[in-house]
Specification:
heterodimer, A: alpha+beta, Heat Shock Protein 90, five-stranded antiparallel sheet, 4 helices, B: alpha/beta, 43% helix
Chain lengths: 136, 125
């Protein structure tokens, strides 16, 4: 039953951030997440999609529904081939930013989701994976 | 996806803006420009920003609201954000958003009350 469905949304312009939000809203609603969790997941996706656009100009959001020991969830992966994050610990600090943003994107998305993993290689790009599990 | 229009309405001595449910970045930026233009044109007491249908408040949107409220304050007006949904309030708090001390109200009605009869302690920050 794992990986029921999967898909992706290219992120190449500001409008694609809205497109990513809409896809995530639709998925989270179809998976029967509660209103607050739907809002949390959309907001996290919005932050991460904006990071991709803002820092690298282009990338992709991959999504799939997941199933682990009978628990159902949604996994979102944001991939880019940008400059990479030299210091992930620093990037996770609330308020730290290299743009003119608020520096809430990464730490905020982590708090809104259940799980988050970041893999980054300087000069090669960054992959951020987040998961939210449906509470039964 | 097309840019959603933002309409800034002047009612008596107040500007009223209703944000759409899921505004794109362009709409959020346009909102700021339209509000400041209307501030100059109508010289109102303040601005009521109705976000009761807004479903997602991310850090970009929140930053623009906070910035706009500061700009309105510099021009001599007061901003009240009205009608934030519970799910949005929960998410915004977990994300770490603060809205930089901008006044908030449960409904547009209460926001208008705040602008018409400001609480003495909250009148000036």
């Amino acid at each position: 039953m794992s990986d029921l469905t999967r898909g992706n949304v290219p992120i190449k312009s500001e409008n694609d951030i809205v497109a990513a939000r809409r896809v995530v809203r639709d998925l989270a609603t179809r998976l029967c997440f509660g209103v607050t969790d739907v809002t949390r997941v959309i907001t996290a996706a919005s932050e991460l999609a904006r990071n991709v656009f803002l820092y690298t100009g282009a990338g992709v959001m991959r999504w799939c529904t997941i199933d682990r020991a009978g628990a159902v969830g949604l996994e979102l992966t944001f991939e880019d081939h940008g400059a990479g994050i030299p210091d992930i610990e620093l990037a996770m600090k609330p308020g730290y930013t290299t743009s003119r943003g608020l520096g809430l994107g990464l730490p905020g998305a982590k708090r809104l989701m259940d799980e988050m993993e970041i893999h980054s290689e300087v000069g090669k790009g960054t992959t951020v994976t987040v998961r939210k599990w449906l509470r039964k | 996806m097309t840019n959603q229009n933002i309409s800034v309405v002047k009612v008596r001595d107040t500007l009223m803006v209703t944000m759409p449910a899921d505004p794109d970045d362009m709409t959020v930026t346009t909102f700021q420009e339209e509000v400041l233009r209307a501030m100059e044109k109508y010289r109102p007491k303040g601005l009521v920003l109705d976000i009761s249908v807004v479903e997602t408040l991310d850090s970009f949107f929140a930053r623009t609201i906070t910035e706009t409220s500061r700009m309105v304050a510099l021009m001599g007006g007061q901003t009240v954000i009205a009608g934030m949904r519970p799910s949005v309030a929960i998410t915004a708090t977990q994300l770490g958003l603060t809205l930089g001390g901008t006044l908030t109200a449960l409904t547009v009605d209460r926001a208008l009350d705040l602008l018409t009869h400001p609480h003495p302690r909250r009148q000036r920050r």
